[in-house]
Design a protein that fits this description.
The chain is of the alpha/beta class. The chain contains 22 helices and 19 strands. Strands 3, 4, 5, 6, 7, 10, 11, 18 and 19 form a 9-stranded mixed β-sheet that branches. It has a 6-stranded parallel β-sheet with strand order 14-13-12-15-16-17.
Amino acid sequence: MDWAALAYTAAALLCAAAATVIALGHIYRHLLHYAEPIFQRFIVRIIFMVPVYAVMSFISLILPDNAIYFTSIREMYDAWVIYNFFSLCLAWVGGPGAVVVSLNGKTLKPSWFLMTCCFPAIPLDGRFIRRCKQGCLQFVILKPILVVITFILYAKGKYEDGNFSPNQSYLYITIIYTISYSMALYALALFYAACRDLLRPYNPVPKFIIIKSVVFLTYWQGVLVFLAAKSRFIKNTEKAADLQNYVLCVEMLIAAIGHLFAFPYKEYAGPNARPSGGFRESLIHALKFNDFYHDTVHQFAPTYNEYVLYNHNEGENTQAKYPSASAVPSSRDVELAGITVVPVTSSVSSNQVDQDESMTTPIRHKVDPPGGMYDLSDLLDVDLSSYPAKVPAISDKVWKTGPEDVLVKVKYCGICHTDIHQAKNHFGFSKYPMVPGHEVVGVVEEVGPEVSKYTVGDVVGVGGIVGCCRNCRPCNANDEQYCSKKIWTYNDVYTDGRPTQGGFSSAMVVDQKFVVKIPAGLAPEQAAPLLCAGVTAYSPLKHFGLMAPGLRGGILGLGGIGHLGVKLAKDMGHHVTVISSSDKKRAEAMDELGADAYVVSSDGDQMAAAADSLDYIIDTVPVDHPLEPYLALLQLNGKLVLMGVTPAPLSFLSHLVMMGRKTITGSFIGSMQEMEEVLHFFADKGLTSQIEVVKMDYVSQALERLERNNVRYRFVVDVAGSNVENAV
């Protein structure tokens, strides 16, 4: 009996078993505390490299005649780990959309270290992110192909591990493998160099070192031992392979321990963590490969030759016209309102000089029209003799595009609570005829000669404002929504003296500054609510530094803004409490939106139990309400952010603010930059709005239902599908 070989094998078994147990236990704890699935999906896959390496190496050690099959599995996982670490880094910084927005206008300067010294500065835009992704993905795709080729050549006697003879394929496959491997690692290095400031809070370097030491060093270690065999430092290639497999078993034990410190599960556990859906659901999510599939399609398919900031997290049902969160009324659900709809091409051309959803325009006085229903023909009860008998279509160009204008053919438009205020003249300055709508999504039909941001065919959105002075302090700080001379999308007067008109129209002409591109992967009807309600919820979270994971937030009022606030906060890793005046929305908040807690504000016991528990509250209530009960829910340094328009002054006892150093503040919609960010946030995270899609002939009922808060949670009008131009 060869006692040395037996001891050698026993030591390898002990190390491999210990490494596997430690790694699987680590994975199990991550899946039990699966609070951040977007991050932990990749972390679980990375940690699983240890069992794969350990088990495959040990089996190769005891079954050397069949080792080629097991080492091939191990090497395929090399590529998978590199891709997942890149995806993890991308998720840490908020996805490709957030990277592009954060690095807008920056470049990667020529560098000897990065081997870019002979090239011009590299723009850090969407194409750069795409190239980095392609660099990692090509290795994942190529490695299985090389394995299949290897098996075929091995069966034909043309492949032998460690045989560098020109007559054997090992040399050529190793060269191809090395080039592909190096490209993947180089893409990862370029991405880190570009995003190191964004990645700094996540301290990726130790994690990168551990992964590189396992993947990169073990690969070259294998090459070196075979070269040693070729040079006769080791007896033969079989002994070299045995040594490589033994060393890997030992190294995997070290790697398993290193992963405990590099990817601790306790970061996602504790009292501030949001609950997961259970071990089984977490495991299924981690094993789903839909992210890799969609990444591959959208980085290499010819259709996507221009890089799109695509959501690849939950893309299985991309063929459906309306995502699962959308509700489309059937024919029996639609009641004709007898509305006379006049198709209008709205223009704000630069060439021509629920209760939670109110824009914060000061209310002057309230004037309700008679009757409860909304007959939109009343809004158009004016002398139309100067209008053409047949309203011209887009091709007739009622308004010409100026140098920086974009002509948008309207597809969808959301209905906001502000539309009720405007239609009923609650603000006291409504002007008729009026075309409402400020959550507009459409397709670019034409661009002016100086338009650089958009091309014909782009899917774009228009929000609540279409003009500003561009010279004041807010404008210079890219906070144009606070400009004192901002121009509303409708029911306002443009610089040339003409009225602005909104998205309930066949087309709009808008200055390119006030247009945003809708990311691919985000359905246009889903994007519409984000242009007002979504950015309104997102802006205060960003501005007041409330985006870090682990915070405890409250959403006061569960309407159009409130439900998006819940979704945003949850995906930022917050513990979210919905605060409502009754218990009737509890099931919706907890089961459908995923809120962690629900507090009825009229229940003193529930409010007392929640006291001193929240870091912030987003207050979306648009009616008079006391602030003291909600101030009591805030912790030290907590913030109460007001976003609902109230008809009367709000009051509070000052000591409730002073004793906790609390802040009462406000926020108003969002900037154009924040609008882009929230669109990419939803696309990257795979989030959806809860919407009900209706046609133009249902708008009257929709407004009436919205006023009764009878919608979950946003109406979106299918303008293009309503055949507006034939509705007269």
